[in-house]
Amino acid sequence: MGIADRIILTLYTLLMAVVSVAVLLCSLGVFPHNSLMSFFNEIPGNWVFAVSSVITLLVSLRLLVTGLGVTDDTSLLLNENDNGKILVGKGAIENYISTLSQEIYGIYNVKALAKLDKKFISVRISASIEPGINIPETTAEVKANVRESIKKVTGIEVKEIEVFFKQIKSREQ
């Protein structure tokens, strides 16, 4: 779950807590019955309530989808037959890509993020590169190495590889 989803979840939880307290106070008779009925009588025809309801519904659906984990796959199905399934975790693929990338001369401090699909893998590699290294040639070498190795190891094609160099700096000894 990303930071935006966590913020939305926190705000939504606070909103639901306020609504729950209001319902509890109404059920205990703290709020008079007449004031509650006059509030509900204002709802029909008031677009503010309609917009608020639509926003709340959309947030609810977003949190439901995020909570069920539908937004991001955590493993990749490599093979399935009568004997069972062969799965590889997203973390394992990302660590492997990081290791492959660091095998290229001049590249260090590599972090990889993989997006898994049923037939493809998309990768974003973030790394540091030493000064004096030819960036276009090195990037092409990283992409070729990752593409070939992932295809060989998993049998899945790498659809897209994005390489981002966060700094050009000598490796700390």
Description:
There is one protein chain. This protein has 173 residues and is of the alpha+beta class. The protein has two domains: 3-68, no CATH class; 75-168, Alpha-Beta Plaits (2-Layer Sandwich). 52% of the residues lie in helices and 26% in strands. It has helices at 3-27, 33-42, 47-68, 90-102, 135-154, and strands at residues 75-81, 84-89, 107-116, 120-129, 157-168. Helix 1 crosses helix 3 (47-68) and helix 4 packs across helix 5. The protein is elongated. The two termini are 36 Å apart. The relative contact order is 0.10. The mean pLDDT is 83.
Q: What structural class do the secondary elements suggest?
A: alpha+beta
Low-pLDDT runs of 5+ residues are none
CATH superfamily of the largest domain: Cation efflux protein, cytoplasmic domain
Largest sheet: 3 strands, mixed
Strand content: 25-35%
CATH architecture field of the largest domain: 2-Layer Sandwich
E-strand count: 5
